[in-house]
Amino acid sequence: MSSLSPQEIVQKMMDHDAFSQWLGVHVLSVSAGECSIEMTVREEMVNGFRVAHGGITYSLADSALAFASNSRGRHALSIETAVSHTSPVSPGDHLVATARELQCGQRLARYEVTVQRNQKTVALFKGTVFKNDTPWT
Amino acid sequence: MSSLSPQEIVQKMMDHDAFSQWLGVHVLSVSAGECSIEMTVREEMVNGFRVAHGGITYSLADSALAFASNSRGRHALSIETAVSHTSPVSPGDHLVATARELQCGQRLARYEVTVQRNQKTVALFKGTVFKNDTPWT
Amino acid sequence: MSSLSPQEIVQKMMDHDAFSQWLGVHVLSVSAGECSIEMTVREEMVNGFRVAHGGITYSLADSALAFASNSRGRHALSIETAVSHTSPVSPGDHLVATARELQCGQRLARYEVTVQRNQKTVALFKGTVFKNDTPWT
Amino acid sequence: MSSLSPQEIVQKMMDHDAFSQWLGVHVLSVSAGECSIEMTVREEMVNGFRVAHGGITYSLADSALAFASNSRGRHALSIETAVSHTSPVSPGDHLVATARELQCGQRLARYEVTVQRNQKTVALFKGTVFKNDTPWT
């Protein structure tokens, strides 16, 4: 098993995660299998409709998935993810993504990530990860 | 119907799509319901494993979806998307995303986007869009 | 709006739903946007591994989706569904599927359906429906 | 590796697959990683709208996935599947499901299954399987 705590694993991941840094991701809370992170949407994140590009909310949710699943102690890689965009997001919006573990097996685990703005859901994300034998150290 | 050609619609979208510009997206080809775009992965796009963040390939595929579906002439919004990451992507990798229309109805349409590096698939993406009555002008 | 209550709509659907009847589906509870149903797996429902065919749990969850979404009063058609099979199911197992509304818009709505055996989750299902203007009468 | 040919594996699976038998599935062709099967929709397969229950086309596609993935020689279990219903299906309709391998790794593989009636697509299915070390013998 990992010699690191869930918080230490996520901190180590964030330190090398250049894209989450570009997004402005800030970790709110971490526990084994769970994670909550936040960011604020910027002008450079919009698409051709001048709302946040779908890739922005996806990326935030995918970071939450990575942190929540790796916090269990072994390296976990996302293999299948799906996202529903339920409400448009604009520059200036403050987003919170919360990952919850739905199922945790030996090799596979499933997570649900909800992305909210002012407690209103803007995206629903579901991800499956594959865990190999490499511990976080 | 739209007074713009598929190529003019995509050009107009790209002009306002700040995030696709940040990604370095370049349009290779457009026709009604189809689109092919490219980009090169940069160091600032990696995650905590130092490979491309899942959000990067997702975003590229999502832009291809947006361009292909809107090129039909009416505003189309992504409602459901799913992506499978099948091979890791690294800084310096040149990616090509190709969107193909699977089904085109009055309100809903489905697209498949394949993301490749040197003709090898690195991600498989599927998206459903909802088309409203607003034409591209 | 519909002149029928959520319970009356689901009863009317069940009366014509020959396949849910073949499955042995029994409605446990209905309210606007929510539904809980049950069934027991039979020998004729197994696959080549002699566990329940993936189509059985999918079908149960899809019926729960149909009942929950139509109970809102207008005809709703499933457009996108996804299911994760998280634990094998065997003949004799008693399954309960519970549909919960994640988001309810004018045209589109999203639901999550959890399928459980003895309160343990065996499948996670997510569905998106398209609502047309036809009321249930 | 398996001592059985792809055709022998699928025959062995079909022999025990009571639900595919109930559906009336007939195998059209099998090769390593690919499979094509057919069935005809019956009155007892309809839902509350008197069209084929979504579980019917899902089940047909899921059988095609199981046959195509197991034909590679090792036991493969479906872990994530998604289906888009693109056109309603009625009793009497003859359906053909064709599974194509999108990616084949050591542990995971992805397949696309297209369900057609008279060469017109009625459902698009995507599935991911996990392969364990048990060979088909």
Concise description?
Chain A has helices spanning 6-16, 18-23, 54-70, and strands spanning 26-31, 34-40, 74-85, 94-104, 108-117, 120-135. By secondary structure, chain A is an alpha+beta fold.
Structure commentary:
4 copies of one chain form a homotetramer. By secondary structure, chain A is α+β, with helices and mostly antiparallel strands. Chain A has one domain: Hotdog Thioesterase (Thiol Ester Dehydrase, Chain A), CATH 3.10.129.10. Chain A contains 3 helices and 6 strands. In chain A, strands 1-2-4-5-6-3 form a 6-stranded antiparallel β-sheet, with helices on one face. In chain A, a hairpin with a 2-residue loop joins β5 and β6. Chain A is globular and about 45 Å long. Chain A binds chain B through residues 12-20, 22, 43-50, 53-56, 58-60, 62-63, 66, 70, 75, 77-85, and chain B through 12-20, 22, 43-50, 52-56, 58-60, 62-63, 66, 70, 75, 77-85.
